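okkk here we go again. third time trying to get the zinc ion bound version out, last two times i messed up the smiles copy paste (missing a bracket lol). double checked this time i swear
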Amino acid sequence: MARSRGWEIVERAKTGERLVFDGGYGTALFAAGLSNGGCPELWNDTHADIVRGIHHGYFKAGSDFVETNTFGGTRLKLNEYKIGDRTRELNDKGARLARSVCPPGGFVAGSIGPTSCLPVDYGVGDNVATDDEYFATFKEQAEALAEGGVDIFAVETMMFPQEAIGAIKACKAAAGLPVMATMFFQYEEIHDRDRTMWGESPAEVARTLLDAGADIVGMNCGRGPDRAIVIIREMRAVTDAPLIAYPNAGLPITKGDTTTYELGPEAMAKDYPALLDAGCNIVGACCGSGPEHIRLIAEVARSRRSPP
Ligand SMILES: [Zn+2]
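finally!!
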């Protein structure tokens, strides 16, 4: 079998090129009518044009690669909507939608998010998963994404190391594609430090994810780029591996039913020179960001593209 094109992302990042990932999907999906509590992955079937349009918008804005609309696409997560039996179909469709608007030279990452099940060590009751259950559910999703044609896997917004490790190993077992893995950090104001929900430091996370087999590691979601700079600097201190950051557009501001985010495109992009200087190879954005955020972030990244 030919080596997947996705490895080019890893190799280019290693030679010092800055690459641009995409931005958030939730805001655009909600704006298009996805209801609170609706299943985003179902839209890969029912609202294919809208999902395709979001991908296209990011490629046009300057993304080198975009992620599929399959963040909650494990059977464990889809079961919450009673559509676990559509796991294979919805992931396959999600991959094909992104692929259909991917320009020559662009790439597609298969998004793999948390299952909402706690590791057995932490949780009690029905909402827990063993390491074997994590592995099985992620492997099923990763196989479907690979069949649909993704170039790389994006294991993201992970809260627990056990779940992230299960997902990375499942991706590696499913296909010969590279894996990026990112975790969600909280800023602990009282200690002035960033930690995962269960207390791991950025340095510990980088080591854990790389040991599990990830090819690119980093952070996503959480807070804004100001914290991403610190997290990436701490990861860079312990590894030469390619690093990625796609933070939120600052903190969420909730008013009644609607959530907005504090940073507009310009306010967000102005932190990206420092993020790149901290040693980040691939930059994007998460919740609260849109194509205009990515357009400005891409300008920053391209102005600093230089071999080492
Ligand atoms: Zn996010």
